[in-house]
Amino acid sequence: MSLDVVILAAGKGTRMFSALPKVLHPLAGRALLRHVVDTARALTSGRIVVVYGHGGRQVPDAFTGDDIVFVLQEPQLGTGHAVQQALPHLTAGRTLVLYGDVPLTRVSTLKALTSHAGDLAFITAMVDRPAGYGRVVRGGDGRVQRIVEERDASDAEKALLEINSGIVCADTAKLKGWLTDLRNDNAQGEYYLTDVIARAVADDVEVGTVYPSDNWEILGVNSKQQLAQLERIYQLGIADELMARGVTLADPARIDVRGKLTCGQDVMIDVGCIFEGEVSLDDGASIGAHCVVKDTHVAAGARILPFSHIDGAQIGREARVGPYARVRPGSVLAARTHVGNFVETKNAQLGEGSKANHLAYIGDAQIGRDVNIGAGTITCNYDGANKHFTIIEDEAFIGSDTQLVAPVTVGKGATIGAGTTVTRDAPAGELTVSRAKQTTIKGWKRPAKKK
Ligand code: UD1
Ligand code: CA
């Protein structure tokens, strides 16, 4: 049967102590609500209706371009009241209610819920410490009778260990009926979505329940502590998948993937690495400790040494980058290149076997094969207004502390003497040097302090 999804996201998130609406806080680099929307989209091509309120337009504005109906709930009078706001937009036969601050529910668990045959079913869990949650009250026959909120519960009800996740799936027409006569005569003076359970039971509906595969699937985020807990659960899941496919992780508790990480065979990742956007690491690649790698392809056998920051780059086979390298967007490092400590590259191609081992800036440059770039070499690519290009042909040797004032070309096999400021093209095969001649002043004495 067709399915619409309502996502409740109007709450304040008081305990986040943040100007950012709670559902926009990131988990694994994506807003909490983004996780829930993606999950909803994996379930149905029907409508996704997000109920927002606190934080005003910030929530809808963060999702422009998405196929979502946003409904304002103002004031916020409870979860039942929130779903009421969405009712005019529901057209499918069944409706699933999710929460913008419960980001990790598995699609498979929700499929088990939505494929449930009855008119109403919800996700519950057995927990050791049920405090704070609504409790599921069952009759002697084991059937669900109602849900009681913690603040309305008797001591005996508080002792119940089956909790309500809040996630519910219902026949849309019946849900509309049950929601019309909700009352708010409870401890919080709110219209509770949970009260539809008792209403359905009164209509002789058999209310179904589904357990998640793991209890963390129904955990919500109310504080920064809980956000960090869920982040770690999520990351451990990714670490587990990587290891299951043969990736060696020095410590599965110390990796963060904020996007998509694809790995070949025999890939090694040391502690403290962060992967953002789309990163792929081919066979035998290794990433040293504390690297940040974003939107980058690392070819087979390449080694990224510790503390390197790599963004928007292609790293060739058997290349060696770092430690302490900064490889910026548009860097294309061919096979067996070396980019060493305190070397920055940007919009630069390094041909096969070329090396910049220490302390250099290579920006807007095309470097041929087997070029050696000495320490302290800088491409002066910016004149204050425009960027200019440097070309260094195959087998050139750039002495230490050279400035290449672009636009400039260094010919094939040319040698640039240390300390040279290259302002005109340097011819192939020749030594070019702009350094002043060295002189020695014989018998010169250092000034002495006056007595
Ligand atoms: C709710 C359930 C409780 C369940 C718990 C699971 C009710 C009455 N209680 O309690 O049984 O155990 O979730 O975490 O449903 N929201 C709105 N508009 C409102 C109120 C809330 O959009 O007017 C949204 C919030 O942003 C949040 C969600 O609904 O995403 C749940 O609201 P919250 O106040 O956290 O409900 P709980 O008291 O935790
Ligand atoms: Ca809550």
Tags for this entry?
16% helix, 8 helices, binds uridine-diphosphate-N-acetylglucosamine, 35 strands, alpha/beta, 451 residues, binds calcium ion
Secondary structure: number of strands? 35
Helix content percent band: 10-25%
Quick one: overall form?
Answer: elongated
Main pleated-sheet profile:
8 strands, parallel, barrel
Listed once per kind, the bound small molecules are: uridine-diphosphate-N-acetylglucosamine, calcium ion
Distance between the termini: 102 Å
Describe the structure.
The chain has 451 residues and is an alpha/beta fold. The chain has 8 helices and 35 strands. Strands 15-17-20-23-25-24-21-18 form an 8-stranded parallel beta barrel. Strands 5-4-1-6-10-7-11 form a 7-stranded mixed beta sheet, with helices on both faces. Strand 2 and strand 3 form a beta hairpin.
Q: Secondary-structure map with pairings?
A:
Layout: E1 3-9, E2 26-27, E3 30-31, H1 32-43, E4 48-52, H2 58-61, E5 69-72, H3 79-86, E6 94-99, H4 107-114, E7 120-126, E8 135-138, E9 144-148, H5 155-158, E10 162-171, H6 172-180, H7 195-202, E11 208-210, H8 224-244, E12 248-249, E13 255-263, E14 268-269, E15 273-281, E16 286-287, E17 292-294, E18 297-298, E19 303-304, E20 309-311, E21 314-315, E22 320-321, E23 326-327, E24 332-333, E25 338-350, E26 355-367, E27 372-373, E28 378-380, E29 390-392, E30 397-398, E31 403-405, E32 408-410, E33 415-416, E34 421-422, E35 431-432
Parallel strand pairs: 1-4, 1-6, 4-5, 7-11, 12-14, 13-15, 14-16, 15-17, 15-18, 16-19, 17-20, 18-21, 19-22, 20-23, 21-24, 22-25, 23-25, 24-25, 25-26, 26-27, 26-29, 27-30, 28-31, 29-32, 30-33, 31-34, 33-35
Antiparallel strand pairs: 2-3, 6-10, 7-10, 8-9
Bound molecules: uridine-diphosphate-N-acetylglucosamine and calcium ion (CA).
Calcium ion binds at residues 220, 222.
